[in-house]
Model the fold of this input.
Amino acid sequence: MMDMRKPLARVRGLGAAGEGVGHWWAQRVTAVALVPLSLWFVISVVMLAGADYATMHAWVAQPWVSVLLILFIIATLHHAQLGMQVVIEDYVSTPLLRMASILLVKAVAVVLVVAAVLALLQVALGG
Amino acid sequence: MTAHDRPLSPHLQIYRWHLLMTMSILHRASGVFLALGTVVLVAWLLALAAGPESYARMTAVIGSAPGLVFLFGWSAALFYHLCNGIRHLFWDAGQGYELPAAYASGYGVLVATVILTLAAWGGACLILGGV
Done:
């Protein structure tokens, strides 16, 4: 079959949408990262069942806990907004409504990430 | 409509409903539910940063009957999405596509979800009980 594309476009492999497998790959990478992170999070929360404010605050304030929680939140929300985007693309057929809902989901994800990281830094740095 | 001259792919009404389809849509449904649950997780972190009073209000909401039902559903959705997600990663690597393997991994995911959810809540109850 004759290929009408230029060699450069073929090498880049970005396809018609101009982004190639970037979205798909980012979803797999965050998925792999979330396997240990979410297991660690759930086990930690179970171990802390019934903990009071001081205990919970002290746990989160530990440097490596803060680091893992920040990574967990970033990976979770990145993975979540990538997934929500696919769901919206599949079910919302009106172009304008589809674009608007995808942008809304991404905006909410960014707000949540920034809010969570700020909260975690506040706890970690004793604010 | 005179659209009979081109082939159309079969759709949901054509196929007999089976386990793998249910698990596929459940993966999506649990993912959307987990995304909503993340809002609660962030709210919990904000409450923790805001101080003891707001943290007490937050734990009161989560500890209420509807809150605990939500938390139980969230944990079950997390374990299902986690296990089935690992199954998807194997598929992405080209493993386990044969029908018997897909069914075996499917049942494995369902069993693992039930065991992990019960283990998490059982463990939490034991720790609350002071073990």
User: Anything to note?
Assistant: The radius of gyration of chain A is 20 Å. Chain A is about 80% helix and 0% strand. Residues 23-124 of chain A form a domain with the 3 helical TM bundles of succinate and fumarate reductases fold (CATH 1.20.1300.10).
